[in-house]
Each structure stands twice: as C-alpha cells, then as structure tokens.
Design goal:
The chain is mostly helical and 174 residues long. It has 6 helices and no strands. It is elongated, with a radius of gyration of 24 Å.
C-alpha cells in the first residue's frame, strides 16, 4: 500500500513539473509577443520624431542633402540629422536581424544606400560620419557600414543622383 501512495505522489510531482514547464513556456511566448508589439510601437513613434526634426530644420536639410554650402553651425545640425536617420535604420535593421520583427534586415541598409546615391550631400555627410567612427563593429554578425556600401555600389549603377526633390532626402523608407 505504501508503494502505491509513493508512486501516486511521484506521478503528481512529475505532472506538476510538466505543468510548470508548460506555463513557463507559455509566459515566455507571451513576453516575446509583448516585446515585438513594443518594438513596433517604438519604431512607429520614432519615425514621426525624425520627420519632425527634419521638418523643423527643412532649409538646412534640403541644402545639406543637395550638397549646397552650409555654415559650420548648419553642418553640425545637418550631421546630427544624417546621423539620426542612419541610427533609425540601423536600429530597425538590428530588430529585424535579431528576429524581433520580420522581414529582410538588408532592406534597411538598402534604404540608407538609396539616400546616399540620390543625394550627394547626404552621401558626403554619411561618409564623413563613418570615416570618424568605428560603427562597423557594432552590427554584430554583419557590418552595417559595409552592408550599406555594398548596396550603394549596386544602386549607383541604376539610380541617377539629384533626380529627386531634396525634400525627399532621408525619408525613403522611414
């Protein structure tokens, strides 16, 4: 009789462990979904902020993108805007690369490359930023700067620079 109670107790304990593991798995799945939803809402909120930054400095942005002469102060502002656009696409690339969002992570590098090809001022400032930083290492498993350069080389054969209004600069794919 003792062995039957013991066996029943072991079975109940085993079932409890299995149910606990199933619950933990369910919780992990729910937390991942929450993280994905948060990521989408985060990206959705950043896009209008970058757009607003560009709009608030529209004159500098347009002249910078078309490679017109800027004052030193305007160069700093334009560099900050180019950096913001690049970082926006980099973080979207990372979320896609990490599986937080779906899609092809290279699409984000392609969007930066497209802006570089079409807008010579954007390209000039992007090159300047990347020549003074070690950004290639931070992409972890894929060098962001090299990926953009690869897409830039591919697009430079098919796109004609300065054929788009400079007000579209940086906004491709935001």
């Amino acid at each position: 009789m003792k062995t039957n109670w013991r066996t029943a107790g072991e079975i109940i304990a085993l079932l409890s462990v299995i149910l606990s593991l199933l619950f933990v798995g369910y919780e992990l799945r729910m937390n991942r979904q929450v993280a994905i939803n948060d990521s989408f809402s985060s990206a959705a909120s950043v896009t209008p902020e970058i757009t607003e930054l560009i709009i608030s400095r529209a004159s500098i942005w347009e002249r910078g993108c078309s490679n017109s002469e800027l004052t030193r102060e305007e160069e700093v502002i334009f560099g900050g805007l180019v950096n913001a656009v690049d970082r926006h696409f980099f973080y979207r690339y990372r979320r896609t690369l990490d599986g937080v969002t779906t899609g092809n992570p290279e699409n984000w590098a392609n969007r930066v490359a497209r802006n570089r090809v079409l807008f010579t001022g954007f390209d000039r400032k992007w090159r300047e930023i990347y020549s003074t930083s070690n950004r290639g290492e931070e992409a972890g498993g894929g060098d962001w700067g090299d990926l953009i350069r690869q897409h830039y080389d591919e697009l430079s054969d098919s796109l004609i620079p300065n054929t788009f209004d400079s007000t579209l600069c940086g906004l491709f794919g935001l």
